[in-house]
Amino acid sequence: MSELSVNHLLGIKYLNKKDIQLIFETADHFKEVINRPIKKVPSLRDITIANLFFENSTRTKLSFELAEKRLSADVINFSASQSSVKKGETLIDTVNNILSMKVDMVVMRHPNPGAGVFLSQHVDASIINAGDGAHEHPTQALLDSYSIRERLGEVRGKNVVIVGDVLHSRVALSNIYALQLQGANVMVCGPKTLLPKYIKDLGVKVETNLRKALNWCDVANMLRVQNERMDISYFPSTREYTQQYGVNKALLNSLDKKITIMHPGPINRGVEITSDVADSDQAIILDQVQNGVAIRMAVIYLLASKIKH
Question: What is the pLDDT of residue 227?
Fold first, then answer.
């Protein structure tokens, strides 16, 4: 039985190519499970998982919870926005309290980059990073690559463009690492103000013209504009952003080839993509959601198998 090279999933940058392969093969198995009439397996009956969300999240949290329950784990949900964190309790205090309840694994989303790494050094549980600030979101990148593999056969050699608010996106960074690890070519496209200065150091192509980017790519991953992370104005207006970087059906139809459209959600319909694109057969957005559960089941299962009881 092969196993992961890591004891935590803190970021894609800590994984190797074999890890990704193993996660995908395990997800293939679980994908078959969740399409059965009885969608549960007893694999993790003796494992307790705490979901710690220090930032609002609906889809990621639901996806993890569903994955945990499908594996028959015991689940504790902790939403920090309504808790003692507001009263000034530190991350370590919160976690130690939860660990004293004998938790084996913690799924955490936190506004500070590196929170998961910090936690993994101080607590005796397996940590899964469900997003740390604008840094990484490893399970999202894994499900994105997995969805590309499912639609196009493989990730290697494919041209993938990440469009939009790359600066504030943890999805973008994790995706760049994951895609490059698997041998894809990556480009980012967006207004200069939304592309981080270090982006060229990551070995990705940079394009500010959307049509050129779309003509180059096999897959376009459309990010939403993260207004909640913006303290200043990065572009004149939403309307202007949409005119330059929004994808509509007419634009897709005018390209030389049929490209695949992805979106990590939640979608701002009519801003980065129009409804007729989101709901078209070129979009694999709902496949991404379904694959998210299988990928998270795979990650949890593989990490749990390394926990020594």
Answer: 66
Domain that holds residue 250: 138-288
Same domain, 41 and 152: no
Q: Please give the structure tokens belonging to residue 212.
A: 């050129």
What are the backbone angles phi and psi of residue 81, rounded to the nearest 5°?
Answer: -65, -25
What pLDDT does 228 receive? 60
Cβ neighbors of 223 (< 8 A, separation 6 or more) are 162, 163, 164, 165, 166, 169, 171, 172, 263, 264, 272
Q: Which residues pair with 126 in a beta bridge?
A: 105
Sheet holding 219-222, edge to edge: 205-207, 185-189, 159-163, 219-222, 260-262
Tokens of 272: 């980065």
Give the count of domains, the chain: 2
The answer to whether the CB of 88 falls within 8 A of the CB of 113 is: no
Is 118 inside a domain boundary?
A: yes
Average pLDDT per block of 10 residues along the chain, 309 residues long? 92 97 98 91 94 89 96 90 59 81 93 91 92 93 98 98 93 96 98 92 96 98 78 77 95 96 93 96 96 98 87
Alpha helices in the chain (DSSP H): 17-33, 59-70, 91-99, 115-122, 138-152, 170-181, 210-216, 238-245, 249-253, 275-278, 285-304
Cβ proximity of 308 and 7 under 8 Å: no
pTM above 0.70, yes or no: yes
Are the beta carbons of 144 and 221 closer than 8 angstroms?
A: yes
CA distance 215 to 1: 43
How high is the pLDDT of residue 5? Answer: 97
| The predicted structure's pLDDT at residue 308 | 66
State the virtual CA torsion across 228, 231, 235, 237 in degrees, nearest 10: 60
Q: Is 131 left (phi over 0), alpha (psi -120 to 50) or beta?
A: left
* 119 and 169 fall within a common domain: no
What token pair was written down for 232? 């200043």
- 107 lies in some domain: yes
